Amino acid sequence: MTISALDFFKRDVTLPNKLDGLPHKLSDVEGLQIGSFKTNDGVSLNYWKAGSGKPLVFVPGWSSNGAEYINLIHLLKDKYTVYVLDQHNHGLSDKTKLGNRISRYSMDLHEFLNAENIEKAHLCGWSMGCSVIWGYVDLFGSNRVEKFVFIDEAVSIYCHSDWTEEQRVNTGAFVRSVESHISVFSGAFAGGKPINRMVVNTDIFDFYNTINAPAYENSLSLSEQVAQQDINALIQIQFDHACNDWSDVILHKIDKPTLVVSGEHSNWVESQRWIANTVPQGKALIYGKHEHGDHFLHLKLPQKFASELTVFLEK
Question: With bands split at pLDDT 50, 70 and 90, how would you rate the model's confidence at 187?
Fold first, then answer.
């Protein structure tokens, strides 16, 4: 079931920056709809939808949601039916103590495809959204997938004590203790505290900003105006997320054309190259430091990303 976004929110929303080719108001995204469906454990999940053509499904990262994708929805809707799924405890979806596990989120993706009667789609995951897609493929295979796009996600966040340095680099692992990771990560996200690089070896939050990125400022503004966060629920899923190693899925189950997107600022960029070189039909696209080559690159440069994504999907 879907309704127009304006009817759903009962108002229009104006964004702070007026940018050529991008929406300045929510109403600028013609045909934007908000849909919902119930999972088999009784949770109501929402999704954003616009456009026509082959389905293109975005699975956002941890703490992200469809509002942050407003620019990409606008840019891609004339060529694709664009969907962005708000996962458990994210965006417009139910806030619940149920199912804060990647396996549940992967099941949600499966049920979403069923709810929308999507027989085949391009799947594009960002950050934790990649893990959700990897979990989906692990459980259900890739028969309903046309092409994969993975944006800057480590194959394993946790580094096992018996791994070689090569294994650590290939997986992108940057945490030695999941409990410490959660403590440091939540402090950085909720309180803006600096990350202790001896505990969590990443500078990801240094780039969680809108400096010289007005398009990202717009999408974050929309998210802040319409989507509420529940930090406690987000921390629960982050714990489970950090415990998974997806190497076996990358090695054996990703069997469709795959674009892996990362940047020179990423702490796990070498793992992204490893994914692209490991899957049968992989390609790596690495943004430079001068072009927002960080974890948020697709939201900071939506026009560049949408153009390059389209080239890959249409090839």
Answer: confident
Structure tokens at 57: 């499904």
- The pLDDT of 190-207, averaged and rounded, is 78
Domain count, the chain: 1
The SS3 assignment for 82 reads strand
CA 29 to each of CA 4, 138, 225, 302: distance values in angstroms, whole numbers, following the listed order: 11, 35, 17, 15
**Residues 107-119: tens digit of each pLDDT:** 999 999 999 999 9
Closest CA to 314 of 85, 113, 78: 78
- The residues, ordered by sequence, that sit 6+ positions from 35 with a Cβ below 8 Å of its Cβ are 1, 2, 3, 46, 47, 48, 49, 116
Residue pLDDT, tens place only, 149-171 = 999 999 999 999 999 999 999 99
Give the Cβ contact number of residue 277 at 10 Å.
12
Domain extent at residue 290: 2-314
Task: Count H helices and E strands in the chain, helices first.
Answer: 12, 9
Q: Are 100 and 124 in contact (CB under 8 A)?
A: no
Q: How many Cβ atoms are within 10 Å of 251's Cβ, its own excluded?
A: 12
- Are 102 and 59 within 8 A, CB to CB? no
CATH code at position 84:
3.40.50.1820
